[in-house]
Each structure stands twice: as C-alpha cells, then as structure tokens.
C-alpha cells in the first residue's frame, strides 16, 4: 500500500489569487509618470517563475543541487517551486524535506508531492531501466507541471533536473533578459555531453553536426536556434503560441508525429509544430550537468564517479563548492588512501595558500591521502645563498625559449623535487606520487590511476611514470608492450605529477645534479636519454632512467600561458644574475628587483614570447585522447537514453 503525500506552502497566496496584481507587476522596470509638474517613478517587479523539478534517487546530487538553486540571484518571492518524487531507494525525500523546511517561507509558494513507497517499479529491471511505464509517468508529471504553471499565471516555467548545478547565480535573470520563447543555458559535463542537440534525424533522434562542438567549446558564443534542448529549459508562458506546447503525444497535431514515446522529443516537436524556436545560450558558463546513466550502470558506481568529476570541475573553476550547512550532513566524507602507493606528496609554496586550499578540496573529493611538502621558495633565494648551498650550473645552459640562465623560481622548483627524492631514499619509500599544486585532475582519475599502476607493476621495468606533462616530440610515442594505458615517454616539459620508484630516485640523486644544475623538466628527459641537446646530455653519464607516461594523461595544468589567472613562480622570477627574463635580454635601467608573481600575458612584447606554460600543440595529441575509451565522447549521445529525472 503506497501513499501520496502533498506539502503545500505559500509566502503570499497562490498566483491565481493574485492574478490582477501579477499582471500589473510583471517586470522589474522603472516607469516614469508625469503628473502636472511632478515626475513619479514606479518600479515594476520581475517576472514570476515556476521551477519544476522531478526527483528520483538523487540523494548524492541533491545537497549540491539545492544549494546552487538557493544561490540563484533572483527574488525568491517571484519564484514558485513545484517538486515531485517517487520510487526512491535512497534519502532523496528526506533531503528535499530538510531543505524545504528551512527555505519554503522564502519562496512565493511550494508544491511538493511524493510517494512514500520505496523501490523501483515492478516493470523495471533496474532503477536505471527506462520502460514505457516510466516514460509515461514522466510525461504525465511534466505535463502536470506545465499546466500548473499556466493555471497560476506564471510568466515562465523553468524545468530543471535534480543533477544540474547552476554555478552562475545570475542564470535565471540572464535567461529571462534574452526574451526568448524557449531557451536553455548550455551546461558542461565531464565529456562532450550537454543539454542540447544541433541536429535531429528524420526518426527524431540525435544527429551529429559540426556546429555542436563549436557551441560546446565556446568557439561561437551567443544564443543559437537548435532542434532540441532539455534538462534545464526556460519557457516563456506569455507568448500565445506556448499554449500549444505539450509533453503528451495525444496533444500533437493528428497524423504529424510517429516518433517514440519520449518526453523531451515530444516537447521539442510540439515547439516545432507550433512555430516556436528553441535556443541554447552559451554567453556565460552557467553550470554543469551529469551524464545520464545507461541501463545496468549504478549510482554507487558510475554516477558517483561522475559527480566527483563534475564537482572537481567546479572546484577548478570557482575554488570551492556551494553546500549549505544543513545539507552537508547528507554528504559523506570520502575515505582516503594513497592509491596503493607508499606515499603522495604535493609540492606547494607556503605563501600559495589559495592553491593549497583548492588542492585540499580536490583531495577530499578524490579520497587522496596527501602530504603537503613545502616548496623551496625562489623568492627567498639569492646568488649568494645558491652558491653557499653548493649549487653550480650546467656549463652552457640557456633556456630554449628565452636564451637566458635559470631563474630563482626554477632553482626552487628543482630543489623541491630533489628534496622529495632524498626523503624517499631516507625513508625507504618504494613508490611515490609527486604532485604540483597547479593541476587539474582528469575525469575518472582514481579508476584510471589504478589501471596505469596495475599495468606498470604487471609489466615491470620502469622507474618513473608521468601522470601529467607537456609532450614536445611530434612523432608518436610507442606503446609499452602489453599495456593499454602506458607509452614510452619522449622529450617532455612540466612535472605536474609523476610516480617515481625508490630506484628511480636513487638514479636521479647519483648523478649529483646540484653540481650541474638545469631545470627539473630538462633534467628528467636527459636522465631517460631522450633529450635533443647532446651537449647538455654529455655531462650526465648514467642516463638509464626508465620513463613511461600515462596515455591519455591523468593531469593537466589549471592554466596555460595567457589564460586569466595564470601565474608562474618559475618562469617569471629573478634570474641567477638578478634580472627579469625578457625578450632580447634585460631592459635598460632595470633594477632586477621584481616579484615572482609576475603574470604572463602582461603588457609589452614579452607577452608574445613562447613559454613553457604554453598549451601543448602536437598533431597526435587528439588521437591519444580519443583512444582512452573512458571519457564521454559525442558519440555517446547517440546511445544515451538522456534520462536524468524520474
């Protein structure tokens, strides 16, 4: 026996009861009335919006979904909530109730109904199985929401799925400003999946187009007419033709539709038949979307991994997550481990607290037990200090890009890695992951890291494995025999992240690199005997380091040269001769007293100079990425059932 529970509350009465007032106060605009010698300014209110949400088995996303929904910078007394939930096997209803208990009074009205019985429908094979009964239920509920918005004279209805995170608080207001009949904010996933189509086949399914990636990658920015939007869709109900919009097949023009029983397709075709254009807007980064699970995939497995991916993207972009205090109790801490390694170190300058804070959030999301390893700060070094430490420089070394000697930042970077190698030997640590603090983790990082390590240990014969780097060789790097995840490393820059064995650390130390110093990302290729400069390599005898690389890579930089927010603590610091790197040598009159915080892409000619921080530009790079099989490609859209609600 099941029961249907209804929760209704209102901060100001039903919309229908305030119909005349709603019509009079439709928009937040200033109107000036001239009466005799007086001018009176009147302020009109913003449009009313009903937000429609369907919830099923979303306990893992709801704390973040509701937090970001609450963060929307739109008057809550102009918003109504319409929420339905059933057939849950988790705490979705409990979480929804907890959030509504605190926030209901803020909104104009709340209509929350749910079925209290637990478990999937009898006709469903699994909770991710979409059969005709399930489609019919979703169609009925969405049609009910559309009708409810019409009955309360709402100006707009905003359909949004419970695993969407609107990280841009201005989303709703910005969409309304577009004054479009149907518009969706373009959402970002952990792959090529999004909430719009650019093409539809004659039998009403997804069709690939060249425009899709252009819009998704922000190569073209604006609002674009498309045949399909879903998952987060704003509909203007003040346009007369929207009365013909429907989710029900029976309401379509007779004889025109012979497609599947599918809510988003029927809705798109009803818009098409009514002459109402649909748009996707990518003028801003509005938020993020989860890729729907296919039949057989599970929430504890694939969906939790996807949630981690998306939350990691948000941390990369914003530095933190929005999670209301009363909802945080529904988010479990992720158990931490060292990925079966002896230890994990993160190199971080003590003064770079913002990077450290961001990385700690990533470690919490990924469940990584990482030790903060204080970096040697180039700002604290001087020529005398470097000399007193016994450091001498490689004869004839000059930076390949700038034709300059090493910077203090590069010296500090090398010493930071060197100190970890020394600690490994001292503590007899067999395998260590070394991370820098300006990295972003690729989707499914843990699963892929385990795969790389399992292959490496099974095959054996390696000293170092790059998790992140910048490849400099244009020829294809050879796959390691018997591995699906590893290639033999070629000449590379960057030390974003790498796993090194105890024997590898000993090899790097035995060459006494402090007596012939050069940057660490030049030293490593020399030591695995894949460096183009023979005069440099001739100073190092035992070049037997066996270096492999994950393919595709597991780590990338958070920023590249010229990106907003890009800061280099190595390239843009003082040289060992006390001058700042610049095109053609130091400028006349330069004091050499500059900050390590110099940003790339600044004023003058120097911003055009090639740098190590430039994005990798290899013709074979896309091919390696496409061979992964783990990421979410555009082709996935053709087989995805695109479902993410009930």
Automatic annotation (TrEMBL):
Domain Glycosyl transferase family: 343-522
CDD domains assigned to the protein according to its UniProt record, in alphabetical order: Glyco_transf_25
Ranges of compositional bias, category Basic and acidic residues: 633-646
Keyword field: Glycosyltransferase, Membrane, Transferase, Transmembrane, Transmembrane helix
GO molecular function, one term: procollagen galactosyltransferase activity
Pfam family, one: Glyco_transf_25
Chain intervals for the UniProt region annotation (Disordered): 577-646
Keyword Membrane among UniProt keywords: yes
TM region(s), chain numbering: 12-34
Family annotation (InterPro entries): Collagen_mod_GT25, Glyco_trans_25, Nucleotide-diphossugar_trans
Family: Belongs to the glycosyltransferase 25 family.
Protein name, entry field: Glycosyl transferase family 25 domain-containing protein
Organism: Anopheles coluzzii
């Amino acid at each position: 026996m099941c029961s249907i529970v209804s929760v209704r509350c209102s901060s100001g009465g039903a919309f229908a009861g305030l119909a005349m007032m709603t019509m009079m106060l439709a928009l937040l605009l200033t109107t000036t009335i001239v009466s005799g010698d007086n001018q009176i300014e009147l302020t009109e209110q913003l449009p009313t919006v009903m937000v429609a949400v369907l919830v099923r088995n979303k306990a893992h996303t709801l704390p973040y979904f509701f937090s970001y929904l609450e963060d929307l910078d739109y008057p809550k007394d102009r918003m109504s909530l319409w929420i339905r939930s059933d057939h849950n096997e988790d705490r979705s209803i409990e979480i929804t109730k907890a959030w509504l208990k605190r926030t209901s009074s803020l909104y104009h009205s709340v209509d929350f109904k749910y079925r209290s019985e637990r478990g999937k429908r009898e006709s469903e094979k699994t909770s991710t199985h979409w059969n005709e009964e399930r489609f019919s239920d979703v169609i009925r509920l969405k049609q009910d929401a559309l009708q409810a918005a019409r009955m309360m004279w709402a100006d707009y209805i905003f359909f949004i799925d419970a695993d969407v995170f609107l990280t841009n608080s201005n989303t709703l207001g910005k969409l309304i400003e577009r004054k479009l009949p149907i518009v969706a904010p373009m959402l970002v996933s952990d792959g090529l999946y999004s909430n719009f189509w650019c093409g539809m086949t004659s039998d009403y399914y997804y069709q690939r187009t060249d425009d899709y990636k252009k819009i998704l990658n922000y190569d073209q920015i604006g609002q674009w007419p498309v045949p399909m939007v879903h998952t987060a869709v704003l509909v203007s109900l003040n346009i007369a033709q929207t009365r013909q919009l429907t989710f029900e097949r029976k309401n379509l023009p007779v004889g025109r539709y012979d497609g599947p029983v599918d809510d988003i397709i029927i809705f798109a075709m009803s818009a098409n038949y009514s002459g109402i254009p649909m748009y996707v807007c990518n003028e801003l980064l509005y938020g993020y979307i989860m890729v729907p699970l296919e039949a057989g995939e599970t929430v504890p497995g694939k969906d939790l991994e996807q949630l981690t991916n998306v939350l990691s993207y948000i941390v990369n972009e914003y530095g933190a997550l929005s999670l209301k205090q009363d909802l945080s109790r529904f988010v479990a801490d992720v158990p931490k481990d060292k990925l079966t390694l002896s230890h994990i170190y993160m190199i971080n300058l003590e003064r770079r607290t913002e990077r450290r804070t961001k990385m700690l959030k990533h470690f919490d999301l990924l469940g990584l037990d990482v030790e903060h390893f204080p970096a040697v700060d180039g700002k604290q070094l001087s020529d005398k200090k470097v000399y007193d430490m016994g450091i001498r420089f490689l004869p004839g070394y000059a930076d390949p890009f700038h034709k300059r000697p090493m910077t203090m930042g590069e010296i500090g970077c090398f010493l930071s890695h060197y100190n970890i190698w020394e600690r490994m030997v001292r503590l007899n640590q067999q395998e260590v992951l070394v991370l820098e603090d300006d990295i972003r983790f690729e989707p499914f990082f843990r699963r892929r890291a385990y795969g790389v390590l399992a292959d490496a240990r099974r095959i054996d014969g390696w000293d170092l494995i790059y998790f992140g780097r910048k490849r400099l060789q244009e020829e294809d790097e050879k796959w390691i025999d018997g591995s699906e995840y590893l290639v033999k490393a070629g000449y590379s820059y960057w030390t974003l992240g790498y796993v090194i064995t105890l024997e590898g650390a000993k090899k790097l130390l035995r060459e006494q690199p402090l007596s012939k110093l050069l940057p660490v990302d030049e030293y490593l290729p020399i030591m695995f005997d894949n460096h183009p400069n023979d005069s440099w390599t001739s100073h190092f005898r035992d070049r037997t380091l066996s270096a492999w690389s994950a393919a595709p890579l597991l780590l990338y930089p958070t920023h590249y040269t010229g990106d907003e927010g890009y800061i280099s603590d190595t390239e843009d610091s003082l040289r060992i001769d006390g001058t700042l790197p610049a095109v053609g040598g130091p400028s006349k009159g330069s004091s050499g007293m500059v900050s390590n915080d110099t940003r790339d892409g600044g004023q003058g000619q120097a911003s055009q100079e090639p740098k190590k921080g430039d994005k990798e530009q290899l013709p074979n790079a896309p091919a390696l990425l496409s061979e992964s099989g783990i990421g979410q490609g555009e082709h996935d859209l053709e087989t995805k059932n695109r479902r993410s609600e009930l």
